[in-house]
Amino acid sequence: MQPGSQALNRRRFVQIFGASFAMALLAACSGAAPQTAGPTTAAGSAGPTTAAGGAGPTAAPAAARNADLIAAPEAAAKKGGVFTIAGPGDPAHFDLDQSPSLVNLWPQSPMYDNLIRFNPLDGGQTIIPDLASKWEVSPDGLAYTFHLRQGVKFHDGTPFTADDVIATFERRRNPPNGVVSIRQELFKPIQKMEAPDPYTVRFTLSAPRGYFLEALATGWSVIFSKKSLEQNKGDLRRVPDSPGTGAYRFGSYNAGEKWVLERNPDYWDPNVPYVDRMERLVVPDQKDQGTAVLAGRADFADNPSIDTHLEAQKKPDEVGTVLHRATWAWTVTFNAQKPPFNDARVRRAVHLAMNRQQLSEIYKLAGQVDMGTRWVQPGSPLATKSDDVLKLPGWRAAKDADLAEAKKLMAAAGLSNGVKDLVILNRGTSGAGLEVWAPAFQDMLKQTLQIETQIKPVETSVYWDSVRGGDFHMTILQPAGAINDPSDYWAQWFKTNGPQNYGNWSNPQFDDLLSKVDAELDADKRRGLVAQAEDLLDQECPMFMHGWMSIPRIWRTAVKGVDEQHIQGTYIVVRYDTIWLDR
Amino acid sequence: MNHYVARRVLVSIPTLVGISVLIFLVMRVLPGDPVSVVFGQESFAAMSPADQLRFRSELGLDKPLYLQYLDWVVAVLHGDLGRSFWQNETIRDIILRRGPLTAQIAVMATLLSWLFGVPVGVLSAMRRNSWQDNVTRVFATLFLAIPSFWLGAIIVIVGVLYFSWRPPIETIYLWSNPGKNLEMTLGPAIALGAGAGAYVARMTRSSVLEVLHADFVRTARAKGAQERVVVWRHVLANAILPVITLSGLIFAGLLGGSVAVESAFGVPGLGKYLVDSLSKRDYMVVQNLVLLYASVFTLVNLATDLAYAWLDPRIRYE
């Protein structure tokens, strides 16, 4: 070969071969590029969907790069950075199952996984795989079989198996002495739990439960390590770092100041998390949460005040903000054991006489209340349409006929001249806006029904003593449910001896209807039963239901990866694993 | 002097004992069950009576009152301040974590009150009934009337709305990041110092006015001393004692933490923590912090009195 010749020499061969190999590799990788398929479901399963009776949407988002792994929706999502949240996070203890409060849930749940979860990319409208890669539901709705991912480890290196699932739910269903399982009612129907092999779990229910998948998917239903539960005798109150399998590991917690969670480098979903670290600054005051994001001191506020939300709306280049539906209702509970509210006619008179629309206007500066779905949370497929609700007595804006009916009821109850010296008990920390809403409600009672009341604000520690002792006629509350299904929150608020049935209202007909709602799997029939129950609640009125609350969230525009426009409840999308930072 | 100090310390003991008994009893008399607050209503209601008793026993609340009091006092004398009911954290750790911020704000506020209050008071006294006197007195009255938490809230709101700025919301100590620490503490110090400075200005003014007509001042002027020397070396030195008394009280009060200002700025200080603990019925935190404040107050008063002796050679303690 002559110098300068174009003939193939060894160096040239290697160059061409190397280039060809690289091109072939690229072609192979792009051939395996992310598909838009939704999560897989096993044959015969009802997923990805809410359980029968919920009839939720079934489409999963386009973001998953693999069939059943989550990822941020943006293809150019970056890894790295520290994600800072300003929000509540100063719990009295660390056991999620023993806590009803987001003060525990929001800081701690990112360390854990569920069997299945609500999809964070569509605001929780669908249910997708989590530690269970697929599942089946028997046609009679009694048996749920979950096939678990293999090779998953807890943060302490312990392998995850079916035994951990069983130990978790056994404690949840049947807690040991000294341990309280707040959401025990959701899991009491579990008759049997089996592990035919280390990666399969089967739940057998004593009766069908249309909400069972939601109960497993709620942010509360995390999976604990059996080893950790045994080491701590089933009580995790003093254990802030009980190992989970989640995308984040416990880093540190300074009481009342800051939670630090570190990325889990061994997480079973290689796509997430994106950030290296998540820091939750404990900021109890909602205004401070919002101003922290507005001023760039934090990236995200999960429960800021409404005025900071309004301010954030003026700065779309810097921050995003949205009002999203919470799982809380704004209510006034009647003491059904004490006159005059032991008489359903008086309770219904209040329900008819109060002008909810005017109360909403008064409350506007503090928050937003959605009164268009009666006794069922907005967004639920079981909710009556707003247009229909707002024509019903009590719910409608036009009040003449309702007021006339209310006065007749008061007269029939022997209270045509009204009643004096009733107590409206308030918890001092009951949220922003109470100081405007409560006097408005009080005045409306007086103007319409001559019911004269005294508003009694008390500290939390005194409040619950008074409630337990029945030392009130009415009390303003924002009760919450764990899932967006009336089977859950009605059992808490209205069922005889329900945990949040503070007015001690009892109605066997309602209890019976509720048990039918719980067991019905057919969506249309269930909707019909729910409507019947709502009609009964409209007559009996165990509480004055103003409406369902929306609460704001604010985030810096650099925060990506979560569909903030469709959040369905505060306890549902809480793990921040698809968050990434565009900076 | 040593005898005086020892006597003052001994005399303070019955005061502290009295305060300890009072706060202990007040916390026990207040309605509200600490166990139900710690566990939350839903958990507490679901507990069996045996479990409620067990948790009460864990917190030491099942013993007779006098035993609870003695256990607490003995522990304090051994340097053990106990644990918070809320999270089982030691109160010592809480104080060490939150105390420095509160103390720093108190020191800065006191220094600011002197920085502005003393010169303003002197100017006002020296230019009595002039326009400078009138202006300074109006501002002093204004800052006396304006609540410090309102001023704090205004500082935060103006910062957020017009400068997209607010103080940091996490604990940053002076020695770890001085810049961010000052961002955090300067606002509260100004809010508190403005009101304190108004007090100092008024006290300085009245005190200087009293001394201005003293013989030794006339003598100093007659000797040909410059007015600046007359004022700052002769007049102020003799007029400063009441200002020191006032400043001692201000400082001791600020050390307890200003709840309202800490709330306005979101500072994780001791003042707000004490109030939160009170509403949570966290007996141990409240008792120990109140005892701590009482002790600090006593020490600051003693230091103030000793400062008199240092400043005024005519004052000697036997």
Task: Tell me about this structure.
The complex is a heterodimer of chains A (about 575) and B (about 325). Chain A is of the alpha+beta class and about 575 residues long. In chain A, about 30% of the residues lie in helices and about 20% in strands. Chain A is built from 17 helices and 19 strands. In chain A, strands 1, 8, 9, 10, 11, 12, 13, 14, 15, 16 and 17 form an eleven-stranded mixed β-sheet that branches. A four-stranded antiparallel β-sheet of chain A has the order 4-5-7-6, covered by helices on one side. In chain A, strands 2-3 form a two-stranded antiparallel ribbon. The longest helix of chain A is centred in the first third of the chain and has 22 residues, at about 10-30. The radius of gyration of chain A is 27 Å and the shape is globular. Chain A starts with 9 loop residues before the first helix and ends with a strand. The model of chain A is unreliable at about 1-10 and about 20-65 (pLDDT under 50). By secondary structure, chain B is mainly α. Chain B has a domain at about 100-310: MetI-like (MetI-like fold), CATH 1.10.3720.10. Chain B is about 80% helix and about 0% strand. The longest helix of chain B is centred in the middle third of the chain and has 36 residues, at about 90-125. Chain B starts with a helix and ends in a 7-residue tail after the last helix. The relative contact order of chain B is 0.14. The interface between A and B is large, with 43 and 45 residues.
| Highest CATH level, the class of the domain at 98-311 in chain B | Mainly Alpha
Structural class of chain A: alpha+beta
Poorly predicted ranges of chain B (pLDDT <50, ≥5 residues)?
none
Specify the helix fraction band of chain A.
25-40%
Count of alpha/pi helices of chain A: 17
Tally the beta strands of chain B. Answer: 0
Which range does the strand content of chain A fall in? 15-25%
Report the uncertain regions of chain A.
Answer: 1-8, 20-65
What structural class do the secondary elements of chain B suggest? mainly alpha
Distinct helical segment count of chain B: 14
**Largest binding interface between chains:** A-B, 43 and 45 residues
Q: How many distinct beta strands of chain A?
A: 19
Roughly how much helix do the residues of chain B carry, as a percent range? Answer: over 70%
